[in-house]
């Protein structure tokens, strides 16, 4: 266990720079998004006021309040989130392959450490999970700061405040990365962690069997995905909706647990017996 | 004792190791000799469970290699296996963190002996100094067995002399060393046992002292006989 935490600490240090860059990038671009949305709104507002000399209530009737959803629906806001998602997806592969490639073959050192090799697997998995959660956490804090900036820079009478909770509810991407309901959060992140575990196993299959491993890894990913959604397909086809949705969900959950345990078992075996430097 | 028993390794259809068996004893320097591509490094990798075998087994002190074995057997490969942005000091810290048997005093001694600067980044070191750092990180673990893959390959003459000096020092004493090298001349007089690998098989295994005393031959003479045949 002590070695797991040492490895985790080591992996977190390795990803820290990337995380800080992503956070900085996200914050700056989203802040630019706030100013762009503000400036668009104020230009629009001025035009109306100049042309028609309208009152505040007339302006509000014409162009509406300035609220943060004007910011979250722009590319300035979604773009950095998408880049962070892509970076994490990329890092799922990089976290393994960086040890094999490059000038120094660090995987030798890692595999020869006097610790269970599955600790490497869990340390890398936990790193991905913590990196994701810290990006999401940072995003939620960043939104609060961005909302404050918006409030400071747009005249109060035109601002309609929304809470973070409301924002998450109306925004498809935010409701996916930080759902309001705990059950949904657990299901989404559970499925996410299972996906990372499956991908890690596929990577280890490739690292153990190389060219053949690409085929094994691909087959493994397709097979476990099919297995997990099989109850859904069967219930809608052969069983003609014989089972309730809740029952199908339970079966999927059970299959998910089986895939999780099986995938970790296979990864352990590969790391212990089949891996190649 | 490291026991390599009937190991078979195939890469695709090519059999690289065909029922290879030999032993390397504690307190002895055993040299694994063979032409390049003959599977010497593969044997080292197999001992450290860094490559799977098709058949056979490897025992260290009568037991299969597990995570605990890595406290008593260290492998110093030909390549740099520390992160390039690490300084020598960070690399030592890393080792100290994971190995119960890490001996910092020995590491400091070797740092002084090799005239290395602990603040230097590994990526900035010359090939010779990189090899010395590799050696330092391996030898500073109080392990019973040390595997060294081509420790002299591509290294300048002065570094070679320094590394060869290590073999005569207390750093190696009482430990079991398994070494692969082309440059046998550097350490010929230090080797206790030679295992010659040819065409994936053990061609000959002998104690150097026996060959010298009984047959009046040097290791090079025997190698010539085997490879020139």
Automatic annotation (TrEMBL), chain A:
Keywords: Membrane, Transmembrane, Transmembrane helix. It comes from the Bacteria. The chain crosses the membrane at residues 18-37, 75-97, 118-145, 184-205, 214-234, 246-266. This is Uncharacterized protein. It comes from Allobacillus saliphilus.
UniProtKB/TrEMBL annotation, chain B:
PROSITE patterns: ABC_TRANSPORTER_2. PANTHER family: ABC TRANSPORTER ATP-BINDING PROTEIN ALBC-RELATED. Keywords: ATP-binding, Nucleotide-binding, Transport. GO terms for molecular function: ATP binding; ATP hydrolysis activity. InterPro entries: AAA+_ATPase, ABC_transporter-like_ATP-bd, ABC_Transporter_VariousFunc, P-loop_NTPase. Residues 2-224 form the ABC transporter domain. SMART domains: AAA. SUPFAM superfamilies: P-loop containing nucleoside triphosphate hydrolases. This is ABC transporter ATP-binding protein. It comes from Allobacillus saliphilus.
């Amino acid at each position: 266990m002590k070695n797991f935490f040492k490895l985790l600490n080591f992996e977190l240090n390795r990803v820290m720079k990337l995380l800080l860059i992503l956070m900085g990038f996200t914050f700056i671009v989203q802040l630019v998004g706030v100013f762009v949305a503000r400036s668009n709104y104020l230009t629009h507002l001025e035009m109306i006021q100049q042309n028609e000399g309208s009152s505040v209530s007339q302006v509000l009737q014409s162009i509406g309040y300035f609220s943060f959803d004007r910011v979250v629906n722009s590319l300035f806001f979604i773009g950095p989130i998408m880049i962070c998602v892509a970076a994490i997806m990329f890092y799922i592969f990089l976290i393994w392959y960086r040890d094999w490639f490059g000038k120094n073959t660090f995987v030798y050192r890692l595999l020869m450490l006097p610790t269970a090799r599955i600790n490497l697997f869990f340390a890398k998995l936990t790193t991905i999970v913590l990196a994701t959660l810290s990006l999401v956490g940072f995003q939620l804090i960043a939104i609060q700061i961005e909302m404050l900036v918006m409030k400071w820079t747009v005249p109060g009478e035109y601002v309609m405040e929304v809470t973070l909770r409301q924002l998450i509810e109306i925004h498809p991407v935010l409701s996916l990365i930080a759902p309001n309901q705990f059950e949904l959060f657990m299901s989404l992140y559970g499925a996410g962690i299972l996906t990372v575990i499956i991908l890690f196993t596929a990577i280890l299959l490739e690292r153990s069997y190389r060219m053949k491993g690409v085929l094994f890894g691909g087959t493994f990913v397709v097979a476990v995905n099919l297995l997990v959604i099989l109850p859904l397909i069967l219930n809608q086809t052969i069983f003609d909706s014989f089972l309730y949705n809740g029952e199908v969900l339970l079966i999927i959950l059970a299959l998910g647990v089986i895939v999780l345990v099986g995938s970790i078992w296979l990864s352990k075996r590969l790391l212990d017996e089949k891996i190649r430097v | 004792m490291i026991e390599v028993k009937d190991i078979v390794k195939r890469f695709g259809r090519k059999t690289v190791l065909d029922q290879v068996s030999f032993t390397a004893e504690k307190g002895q320097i055993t040299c694994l000799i063979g032409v390049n591509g003959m599977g010497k490094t593969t044997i080292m990798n197999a001992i450290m469970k860094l490559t799977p075998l098709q058949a056979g087994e490897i025992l260290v002190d009568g037991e299969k290699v597990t995570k605990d074995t890595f406290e008593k057997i260290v492998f110093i490969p030909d390549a740099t296996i520390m992160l390039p942005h690490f300084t020598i000091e960070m690399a030592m810290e890393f080792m100290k963190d994971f190995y119960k048997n890490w001996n910092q005093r020995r590491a400091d001694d070797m740092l002084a002996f090799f005239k290395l600067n602990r603040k230097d980044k590994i990526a900035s070191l010359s090939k010779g100094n990189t090899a010395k750092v590799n050696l330092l990180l391996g030898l500073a673990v109080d392990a019973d067995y040390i595997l060294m893959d081509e420790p002299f390959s591509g290294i300048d003459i002065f570094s070679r002399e320094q590394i060869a000096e290590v073999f005569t020092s207390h750093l190696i004493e009482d430990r079991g060393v398994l070494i692969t090298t082309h440059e046998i001349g550097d350490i010929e007089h230090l080797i206790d046992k030679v295992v010659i690998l040819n065409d994936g098989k053990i061609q000959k295994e002998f104690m150097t002292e026996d060959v010298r005393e009984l047959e009046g031959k040097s290791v090079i003479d025997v190698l010539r006989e085997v490879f020139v045949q």
